[in-house]
Predict the 3D structure of the following.
Amino acid sequence: MNASYNLKEINHESMTDKSRQYKPTTVRRLDTLSGGQCAAPNCSKPLIARDGETLLSKIAHIEGASPKGPRYNHSMDVDERRHYNNLILLCDECHSMIDNKENEDKYPVELLQEWKKSHESMRLHQLSSNPSILKLAISAIADTAFEEDDQNKEVLDTFKIEDKIKHNAVKRNKYLIEEYKVYHTKINGIYAELENQGSFKKEKLLRIIRHLYLKTKGAYVADATNPLAIIQERADDIFEDIENALQEVLDKNEARFSEETIFALPIIMVDAFMRCKILEQPPRK
């Protein structure tokens, strides 16, 4: 989509309702993976007006944002309600229909989750077939000036991804990691190509991500006697803080890199997770 969301306007909808205060990375990913089309399978309405600027899309909660809304889940916390996994981008008409309390039985959680997965998977396939988008995102981050660190030892495939997810108690981002881990081979191929060209972008990119993790981890853990317990409690917050920091890097390069590079960010993040640059390595068995 050519238009961009004004987060201040979106979040102004309810300054007291955190469930509608969306993170920039969440909005950007929804926008990019929508492909400019409503996620409802039988709807062909575009999400941007013919002027190419005016947004017609609505961010809808799969499981309701408030007790008065449809499909409300009392066991969810506010961060889960506003998380990418619980949001779907629709046209105004479809949004009105699924958020009509009287239609709750027609549009259950499972159906909306299937809409989201099917629509975004198709868009992901389209974007991932263009390796230049991944390369641009890698360059955008790797060309950024960051402090160096001395903890960049490569760790990969020495544990099951499920073990690392469990060891760090990842919850909100578990689905994202499981969904995007399949792109590891593709990004590894790009890294190999860069190395063959004599480029050090892979090494610099992973150092930057590792540095961001250590810095973010330190802010949460401080001088705690049991740092792992805090990491497990805040694993999703840590993951998303790093994602937001990398998003800011891409935003600074907006004039040089296309909006579609936003889709590459979770692929880079999950790959770094697999290489143990983000969160803690589980004990060897």
Remarks:
- The chain has a mean pLDDT of 86.
- The two ends are 47 Å apart (CA to CA).
- The first helix runs from residue 7 to 11.
